[in-house]
Amino acid sequence: MLNQPLIHRALWLSIILSLFTFLIKPVFAIELSLSGDYTQGGLIIGKTDEGNTVTFNGQQLQMSAKGDFIFGFGRDDKLEHVLEITNSDKKSVKHMINIAKRDYKIQRIEGVAKKYVSPPPEVLSRIKQDNIQIANARAVRSDRLDFLSPMLKPVKGPISGVYGSQRYFNGEPKRPHYGLDIAAKTGTPVAAPLAGKVTLAHADMYYSGGTIIIDHGLGLTSTYIHLSAVDVMENQEIKQGQVIGKVGATGRVTGPHLDWRFNWLDKRLDPALLMN
Ligand SMILES: [Zn+2]
Predict the structure, then answer these.
(1) Are strands 43-48 and 80-86 parallel, antiparallel or unpaired?
(2) What is the pLDDT of residues 153-176, one digit of tens each?
(3) Ligand 1: distance of its center to the CA of 168 in Å?
(4) Fold for domain 106-274?
(5) Domain boundaries, the chain
């Protein structure tokens, strides 16, 4: 009996305190971390609580079991994007994401064989077939997380072509260049910059010659073209640093180099940004 007023006071105090914390704290909190380059050609690696869902411009993203996700920006993507995170209570938070616009170089290449500037009709079905195989190899959505490791450079050598440049072959405007070109002698070993699984290994595609595509998880793939040797097979598991092929001058080239590319699904990313 004697203690009753004290209990009342404690009860009231706890009610007032919880009301107060309710008012000063957000109603709920959603864990979110993002890292990467907020620019055209950039890749963002994100993490949120397990079980949350994430949409990027309204498109639902693939999530790892531990809440990892990725998204990227194409060469000419718009500059405003929306990321929405929803937790298991169906509460969601929207983040506006603004990215930087880039200026791209103009690259004029002379001395390209005529058959690569205007392909003859008899090779059109082969080119179409190559494109289907490449698109399929980049559409793989595995739950690998190889991209969480820092990346290695696949070949040592000077950069001879950058991402995004508008190209003219023998004066004719062509599609932009999406790779990072590293000049090296034919036969130089190419090392996998990340672990992964081979989704395409082709000795001779029309434009890209010896071609390898590796899946690194959640829709991120890397591509190696103009190779003189393809030393891996499709579905093969690759360790980081493992030799996958050799530099060459196969397909539409004017000299030996490695053309190295990254995709997040069908969006083309800049390998130079991913190296940072
Ligand atoms: Zn190239």
Answers:
(1) unpaired
(2) 999 999 999 999 998 888 888 889
(3) 13
(4) Glucose Permease (Domain IIA) (2.70.70)
(5) 1-102, 106-274
| Strand (E) or helix (H) holding 9 | helix 4-24
179 Cα to the center of ligand 1, angstroms = 5
Domain boundaries 1-102, corresponding CATH code: 2.60.40
**Centroid of ligand 1 to alpha carbon of 260 (angstroms):** 7
**CA distance readout (Å), 162 to 43, 190, 249:** 17, 18, 17
Give the per-residue pLDDT at 5: 59
pLDDT at 178: 95
Domains 1-102 and 106-274 share a fold: no
Q: Which residues lie closer than 8 Å to 141 by C-beta, 6 or more apart?
A: 62, 218, 219
Per-residue pLDDT reduced to its tens digit, 97-148:
999 999 998 988 888 888 888 889 899 999 999 999 999 999 999 999 999 9
Distance from the CA of 259 to the center of ligand 1, in angstroms? 4
Distance 223 CA to ligand 1 centre (A): 11
